[in-house]
Amino acid sequence: MSTANAYMTVRGIEIDIVYKDIKNLHIGVYPPLGRVRVAAPLKLDDDHVRMAVIQRLPWIKKQREQLRSAERQSAREMVTGESHYVWGIRHRLKVVERPGRAHVEVNNERLLLYVPPATDSTARLAVLQGWQREQLRARIPELIGQWETVIGRKVVRWSIRRMKTKWGSCNRETRHIWFNLELAKKHPHCLEYIIVHEMTHLLERNHGERFSKLMDKFLPDWRARRNELNDAPLADEEWDTYEGTRLG
């Protein structure tokens, strides 16, 4: 793919620009300080990009403020006493070392992680992430089935993976939807919002007026759910605030 890099300052905000062989312009706001990056089609020039950034300045400023004020989780060491989120609820981790199969249980406010003795933090995290995948796999099929009837489009395939810039993504041609593993930490309403969001892309590719109207029809409170998702505590990784899948 052909690319070219550029740089500009718009009203005191530094902008990194990457011109790519793409159809639509995208703006991302990156932690921790709110760096702004624009991915722009090759056909656009700097003046067009500058105007696009100016038009989105209120959104950009809002995201930069949210990043600076967002509660961030500390780096996970996978030791007893840490806090971890399960479906939007904060749980205190308790690591139980004993022979046998590694697994995870939820006991009221505690998240119990059973691992063999001498299991390191990387292996402990892998056990927890495997359990998080199971949680998502248990909920996603039923929700997709419900919304296929409402939206009138069939999802051919769905997958779960870790993504740093999106909560979900959709391939319209193959009707394949990906979900971010981090959704297992958020409230179930957030998962449903992402499912509806991505399935709506099967009807409308872009995040324009028609897309918003469809979302209003399918899920009238989608903006509140989107805000709930974006306001939830962030993981330690460098998550991007992205004008697209994550923000609707």
Describe the structure.
The protein has 248 residues and is an alpha/beta fold. Helix content is 35%, strand content 27%. The protein has six helices and twelve strands. The chain has helices at residues 46-55, 57-69, 121-151, 188-200, 209-218, 222-231; strands at residues 3-10, 13-20, 26-30, 35-41, 83-86, 89-97, 103-107, 110-115, 157-161, 168-171, 176-180, 241-242. Strands 1-2-4-3-12 form a five-stranded mixed beta sheet. It has a four-stranded mixed beta sheet with strand order 5-6-8-7, with helices on one face. The two termini are 26 Å apart. The model is unreliable at 236-248 (pLDDT under 50).
**Secondary-structure element order, N to C:** EEEEHHEEEEHEEEHHHE
Averaged pLDDT, please? 86
Helix content: 25-40%
Largest sheet: 5 strands, mixed
Gyration radius (Cα, Å) is 20 Å
